[in-house]
Amino acid sequence: MLNTTSMFITFHGRLEDSVRAFYEGLAEDEGYGEARRLFLELARENGKHKEMVLRTYREVISDAFEGGFPLTGLDEKDYSLNTDVTQELSLTETLKGAIKLEETVKKFCEDAAASTKGLMPDVPQAFEWVARRKVRRIEKMKSRS
Fold this sequence. Notes:
Structural class: mainly alpha
Number of strands: 0
Helix content: over 70%
CATH topology: Ferritin
CATH architecture: Up-down Bundle
Number of domains: 1
Order of helices and strands: HHHHH
């Protein structure tokens, strides 16, 4: 159970790292042709998303901030990712899987933002920013499938 801000931040970083590795693997597969550039772009953005949330957290962290606010716990199991890449999948099927990954991370960011609303606004705003970016990424992939 995730029930502190630092746990939210750490878990978010692991989600972004997993999705980034997924996209990097797809970008290396020549079978995806032009879509390889999209996957590489998405992988780079995952690093930016992770860094944005982490940087915001570091800017506002204090002992009172971490210990003084009870958070609604989030269960890691609700945000599990399937990053298995199967060579037999078509681009359309691969994009559907990628969209599911993005939707899962988006949901975590929305839930983390809601859970941290009682804190200074910076951390929830960072999670909301990433969630909005995920919506754009989902739309970009849907337009290609």
